[in-house]
Amino acid sequence: MTGTAWPSPHSTAPPSPPTRPRPCAGSPPARSSGRREPPSRRSCARGGPALFLEVALSTTDALALPFYCPIEPAIHPAADEAARRAVGWIDAMGFARTGDEHARALGTNSADFYARFAPHADLDRLWLAACWVYWGFAFDDARCDEGPLAADPAGFARMAAHTQRALEIPGPLHTGDRYAAAVHDLGERFRACATPVQNRRFHHAHRAWLSGVQWQVGNRATGRMPVLDEYLTMRLHSAGGEPTYAMLEIVNGEEVPAREMDSPAVHALTEMAICVDALDNDRHSFARESGRHQTDQNILTVLMAQDGSTPEQALYDTVALRDSVLCRFLELAERVRAHASRPLARYLDDLAHGIRGNIEWALSVPRYLGAGSGGLRTAPAPPVWAGSPLAGTLDPRRLPTVSWWWQDLA
Fold first, then answer.
1. Is 4 in contact with 72 (CB distance < 8 Å)?
2. 301: closest CA among 44, 67, 39?
3. 68: which strand partners?
4. pLDDT at 338
5. DSSP label at 294?
C-alpha cells in the first residue's frame, strides 16, 4: 500500500523523514468500487441504549469495515525483553493479586502495544512505559469500568486524587492502596531517568486522563448518554491517550522544545492522534464491552442514541469521521515536520506509529479477542486495510470541540 514510509520495524537507526503521504484534501474520496454503499438510516425509535446494544450484537457484519491507515507498521526489536521485565515488575508490585487479575493484566500485551508506539526507544525506558500501560489497563478494569467506584463519582474522585498524588510525590510513600503504590513506584523510576519537564508533562497528562474518566463515571451514575461533540471532548481525555503519548519523550530520551510542543499545531496533532486511537479503540472494544454490559458510552451507542441510527449506520459514520481526522493529521504532520527539530520529528513519527500500532495490537490482543459469550470475535482477525478513506456526511469541522484542528496552524 502506498502512503507514508515510516521507519523499518527492526531498524535501530533514528527515524528518517517520512515521504509525502497520500493526499486527503477536502472531503474524503469515496472508497474504490466494490465497497458497500452507505447503509440507509432507519430509526430505532423504541428503547434506549439497552435496545441499541441488543441490535448491535445481532449485526456482526457491522464491525467488518476495513481500516484506512497509510502508515507503515513498526515495532521495537526488543519488545519481548520489555515484556519480560514488565511482567517481573507486575509480580513484584502485587497489584494483580488473583489469578484472574494477573491473567487479565498480562492479556493486555501492553509491552507489544507500546513497542509499536516507540519502535526506536531506549529499552531501559521502554519497559517502564510498558509497565504503566499494564498498570493502566488493570486500574481501568478495577476502578473505572467495574467495581464499586464505576458509578460513584464522589468515591472515584477521592480515589483518583489519591492515585494522582501518589504519582507526583517524590521519595517514600506509605499507602495501603495497591494501585497507588504501584504508580508511585513508576513515578520514582521516571524521575530517575526523565527530565523535570518530561515528568511534569506526564503528570499533567495523567491528571487529564483521570479527569476524563471521572466525567465518564458521572455520566454512568446519572444515566446520561452524551451527544457526539460532548463525547469527543470527554474521550480525548478518558481514552488515556494523553499519558500514553506523553511517555514518548521519556522513552526516546529527547525533550521537545516548549516552543514546538506547546504550539497549536503540535497540540492539534497530539489530539488528533488520540482521537483516531480512541475511535478505533471503541470499535475494537465494543465486543468486550458488550459481554460486560459496559457499552453505555461508546461512539456507536452515542450515535445510535443521538441520531436514531442503526448499528451499521453508526459504524459507517464513525469510520468516516475517524478517516477525516486521520487525513487532517497526515496533512498537518507533513507540514509541521518540514521545519521540526529532531526531537519533534521523532515525536511526530511516533504519533503516527501509535495510530498504526494501536490497530495492529488490538486485532490480536487477548483483551479484545476473549470477549466471552457476548463477543463478536474469538480468534485473531487478519488486518483488512482500506486503500482510501471513507466518505461520509458527518463533517468533524462542524463539531465545536474539534473544528479548530482545521484552522491554519502551520
1. yes
2. 44
3. 386
4. 97
5. -
pLDDT band, very low/low/confident/very high, at 327 (cuts 50, 70, 90): very high
Residues 6+ apart with CB under 8 A from 108: 133, 134, 137, 365, 366, 367
DSSP letter string, 135-199: HHHHHIIIIIISSTTTT-HHHHHHHHHHHHHHHH--S----S-HHHHHHHHHHHHHHHHS-HHHH
Nearest one of 35, 27, 104 to 65, comparing CA atoms: 35
Q: Stretch 366-394: mean pLDDT, rounded?
A: 71
DSSP summary character for residue 118: -
Q: Using CA atoms, how far apart are residues 2 and 341, in angstroms rounded to an integer?
A: 26
C-alpha cell, 287: 465486543
Mean per-residue pLDDT for 35-56? 42
Cβ 217 vs Cβ 153: under 8 Å: yes
**Residue 226 clears pLDDT 90, i.e. is over it:** yes
* H helix intervals, 194-310: 196-222, 228-238, 241-252, 258-261, 264-291, 299-307
User: Which whole number is the average pLDDT over 385-410?
Assistant: 95
